[in-house]
Amino acid sequence: MASPDISIDIRPEFNSFDHLRSTGYISTDRPWLKLYGIRVPPVSPFNSLSSTPDLALIHQCLPDELLIEIFGRMSPYTLGRAACVCRKWKYTTRNPTLWRNACLKTWQRNGIEANFRMVQSLYDSSWRKMWVQRPRIRIDGLYVSRNTYIHTGITEWQFKKTVNVVCYYRYLRFFPTGKFLYKDFPTESQRCCQVHASPSIKRR
């Protein structure tokens, strides 16, 4: 049976341990708690008549006209990434001029008048909606088709017939001029896409 002196000596150690544990976990500094209750003022949309100045330095250096000119030189997929940067860029990328140019360039074989009639009748006069929903052939990557077939092996001194499963990949690449290339290759798609994305291939 333990003596009372031993229990008296252990009790302060437990108390100090509890104090360290509460200090280490409960009093931990959490900087994100300082952000609670802070309201970020909304940014006025593009070409808005609001007199509230934009506090962002990049927006002070780039006027709206120059920002539209920069976005006009981007591809539609890059515009989607730019819309995720901030609220003002999101509003700016919704400009119908940007998506109209992309649609007319993609479906230029149909003609300008046919595209205008289609966007008004099928896509609620929204060029961005037309770009998102209308089927098109992508020219910024590869189309991969995985094909397999069964090949009977040679039976020599065996009671069982051997069967081999052959797998190959067919790669298709489309270009804006209407030209396309295809090649059958045994290399997996992951390796082929890495070679396609290399700088040496892009320079050719």
From TrEMBL:
Keywords: Nucleus, Ubl conjugation pathway. The keyword Nucleus applies. CDD domains: F-box_AtGID2-like. PROSITE patterns: FBOX. It is found in: Nucleus. It holds the Pfam family F-box-like. One of its GO terms (cellular component) is cytoplasm. GO terms for biological process: protein ubiquitination; SCF-dependent proteasomal ubiquitin-dependent protein catabolic process. Its main location: nucleus. Pathway: Protein modification; protein ubiquitination. Residues 56-102 form the F-box domain. Gene3D superfamilies: 1.20.1280.50. Acts as a component of a SCF E3 ubiquitin ligase complexes. Component of the SCF-type E3 ligase complex. This is F-box protein.
